[in-house]
Amino acid sequence: MKRSTKTIRYQTKRSQTRTTKKKRKTRQKKNKKQNNKIKKKKKHDKKKTKQQNKKKNRKQNKQQNKTPPTKTTTQQQ
């Protein structure tokens, strides 16, 4: 039983479908790889910014918690 497929002249149906299938597969693979790269980069960037923010916040908190030394005032009698 043969499937009806579009073919280019001078090529057999089988070989034509085969090549298109292969091409499609390779294209999909490439796209997938590219997308994964982008995803990884985004994830990495997100993590990095998160870390930097944490660091910044930590510094700020330290700064806030540092109270200037209180001067002891002598009371006049």
From TrEMBL:
Basic residues: compositionally biased ranges: 1-61
Biased composition, class Low complexity, residue ranges: 62-77
UniProt region (Disordered), positions on chain: 1-77
Record-given protein name: Uncharacterized protein
Organism whose genome encodes this protein: Tenacibaculum discolor
Source organism phylogeny: Bacteria, Pseudomonadati, Bacteroidota, Flavobacteriia, Flavobacteriales
